Amino acid sequence: MTREWTFPASYAQERVWIANQLDTDSPVYNITYVSAFPAGLDADAVTGVVNQVLARHEALRTHLRMDDGALAQVVREHEPVRLPADDLSGLPEHEWRARLDALSTELARTPIPLDAPPLWRARLVRLAEAWALVFVVHHAVYDSHSAVLFGRELDAFARAALTGAPADVPELPIQYADFAAWQRDQLAGAELDRQLGFWKAHLAGAPAVTGLPMDRPRPARLGFAGDEVRFDLPDGLLDRVGQLAAASAATPYMVLLTAFAALLSRISGDETVVVGVSTAGRDTPEVTPLIGMFVNPVALRCDLSGDPTVAELLGRVRGGLVDAMEHGQTPFQKIVEAVAPQRDPSVQPIFQTALNFIPDSGLDAVALGTTKDDLAFDVTAGESRLVYRTDLFDRATAEAVVARYVRLLAAAAADPGRRVSELPLLDDAERQLVLATWNDTAHDRPAGTIVAEVQRQAAATPQATALVCEGAELTYAELNAAANRLARLLVARGAGPETRVALALPRSVDLLVAILAVLKSGAAYVPVDTGYPAARVAYLLEDAEPALVLATADTAGLVPGDALVLDPLTAADLDAADLTDADRLAPLRPEHPAYVLYTSGSTGRPKGVVVEHRSVTAYLAWARATYPGLAGAALLHSPVSFDLTVTGLLGPLTAGGTVRLAAIDDPGARAGGRPAFLKVTPSHLPLLEEALSPTVDLVIGGEALTGEQLAEWRAANPGVAVVNEYGPTEATVGCVAARIAPGEELAAGPVSIGRPTWNTRALLLDAALQPVPPGVVGELYVAGDQLARGYLRRPGLTAERFLPCPYGPAGQRMYRTGDLARWRADGTLEYLGRRDDQVKVRGMRIELGEIESALLARPGVREAAVVVRTDSGEPTLVGYLVGDADTATLGAALARELPAHLVPAAYVRLDALPLTPNGKLDRAALPAPAGAVVEEDAYVAPRTDAEVLVAEVYAEILGVEKVGALDDFFALGGNSLRGMRAMARIRAEVDVDLPMRALFGSPVVADLAAQIESLIAAELDELSDAEVAELLATEEGSTE
User: Fold this and answer.
1) CATH code reported for the domain at 759-825
2) Architecture of 945-1034 per CATH?
3) Could you report the per-residue pLDDT of 430-473, keeping only the tens digit for each?
4) Are 284 and 220 in contact (CB under 8 A)?
5) Whole-number Cα distances in Å, 378 to 19, 108, 144, 423
6) Residue 198 and residue 325 in contact, taking contact as beta carbons nearer than 8 Å
7) In CATH, what number does 205-425 get?
8) Cβ atoms 612, 596 nearer than 8 A
9) Which pTM does this prediction carry?
10) Which segments constitute the Carrier domain (predicted)?
11) Omega prior to 118 cis, within 30 of 0
């Protein structure tokens, strides 16, 4: 029987063991070494060489196991091993190479259990005249420097076998177990507290997750599935890196890290990024010649605030790395427990990206198809690689990251005086793509006025119905004549180009006549929602300084006493012919304002957006070509004070269609059959019964849209095109749009907002106004024909938001929308919300739309909204839903689907989601979840045998007197090591294969107990009737 000795595991072994438990079937921690022996050695001699190395290093005779709740390393006495051998020497070279690759890959991708010796697999392969060794070893007993040592010793013993001379290998004063004991003795008490104090300060306020541009949302559970992109650095680049390092009192690794930090900041938008770096862990000469696992990862916090130069950033990285390395002995799991005790099972704690510089050891011979990090560079003097998580990234994205890193590194090394924002992120082809190809929207369209467009249509179809409202119908001729008569009166009252006329009119025929009359007079109309509070109406009228105010008898009390109050006889005796410039106070030109719409201001004061005729006619020309339904009946249901209504108001009147003016809940909205065209917000969708649903075009705007929100309506209306239209008032109604044709498949999740409209360009720029690459989040700027003039009498604000466009002809402006978006690979835009609405919970960015989509996909949820509330002082996610779904099971279902930080802490059921007057979700009106959040001191006793077991184990391991069904292991003070002990105890009690990852994914007593019950039920389902009968008989016998 082989003798063995037990010692405490090292911190590195403990860390690897814990991570390995997340997926014991993954080869993620396998390291492959392939070495050729010199000719002249037979299989026995080569086996003897390997055995001499195994005899020297206890680490290669070590495995791990749990002993009394603690992880131990078990060292076995050396016994000579026989290695399996394959003779490929008789094959042609291309065949033996293929066979060798296949053997290496099979060996490398086979998981190595940590609790069964040995923690390596080896195979001898005869190639031509010599033997080669394929050696695959677990990271728990081996690191990159071990690979160098292993190779040296194999060479030394092989030479000795050939020559008969003693092998030139160093003495080993200690073994790995000695180091582990010494390490635990050193890193304890005050010294450990001192080091942890540094890490707490170093990482205070750092982002918990780097905002990488991912192709897919994070799954609920972290996995190891990965791939890699291999690449060569350009000739001479590492030399230039070394020269910059030497000139900056830095190391090449620091320069490589500087470029990586710059890349991460540029693609994430974060001014602080945290990068994983590895310490060799061989700080004493005694451990230098030892094979074993000494590496310890630490976190490098990189500060990129203030847009530093490369040289300045290199100085910051150098200082940070020196500090990190001085505290590099701190076990990483201890840092995690101190800095991020609340674990999210979907995210690697502290850092998700890493960079290693390994010029000596090189890369593994076999690509494992695994990764430990979201993104990790291994840079060598030869072939380098980027390893990436395939759950998050496509290969094309990873290849782009490589190209950007090499480009930034080369530019940084060439000119360290350049600022980080100036480093080239895109190549020339990508710049052409995002600035020109995807913005190729040129259409030859002369500028015009709305008046000319409406009068053209009235002349073409004078007897067609132009307006239906409250039972009244007006033909184009009648509407045009009524507007002309009123326009002449307005001109007589002082209305003309560059003046404004306020309309305090309810939804009525008079409203539409008045809008056209104001436009014909040359003035700009200013709609005033008569449902607004009197104070807001007074503010709008004061700020707009209208030349004239129009009202009715019902609304006259809201406006000044000199307002023009309309009645059936107003302007009835005036000329009905179209006005000419001779009839106006001044000629009407396309650059004159058509309307002024007030939008919410960040200061709380609404601001008036001045939109010119040329911008509106540019939009309408595109809309007529895009929305054939405008030639039919268009239901106009929203207040005209919102520019969303311009499409359904002026679009039909310039396309020969009919404006049906009625509130969405008014019987008049259904009169005359289904409309051909309808424009709504996503929040309106649940209200669209068949009678309201359009037959040709459904246009959606005003809010982010998801596939889940559309699914039911599209299923009921398969022949209707849907257009997701985006556009701030400052860019005239809609400046970017995506058309979803009837029958076109639409994926769940965010719906693209599409491409820019005619003669419009959409620019995604970073903080330095540099274009961002596809997939990277940027702020959306809009340039082109549809831009508004600016803000009424606010030149400072206009200059702040309407900027000179650096990517257009001289004099062109661009509007800063404040919205975030990214280019998809197909050249369409994905809207990601407002820049100033970016929310974080537990330090992680939250995409509320992702959670809402998940809620809408659950049975029994008809409508859903998610907000971050701070009623309790801490940011908390709250879900609001309309439907009969059970909130308890809903939360459990989301926890299985979404990362923990995306699962709402409370739910509120509503009869309907509150909407603003323009149909958007009224988030301010969502009620607080009264009584929905469990109080901290609330205790729920364990209710099942499984819950009792888990609660008792938690209480014992954590030293807590009372543990309830809703208590969280980590919130009670648990950590990874205690988690190992807890899971070992539970497995011993119930004899089920409960993986360690179950604790990280379900740390709450009730959730973990449910997993145990599910596993037991699954095992019972697999038993035969005879086995069940035997088990029951055994149980009955044990109770007698």
Assistant:
1) 2.30.38.10
2) Orthogonal Bundle (1.10)
3) 999 999 999 999 999 888 999 999 999 999 999 999 999 999 99
4) no
5) 20, 19, 12, 22
6) no
7) 3.30.559.30
8) no
9) 0.82
10) 941-1016
11) yes
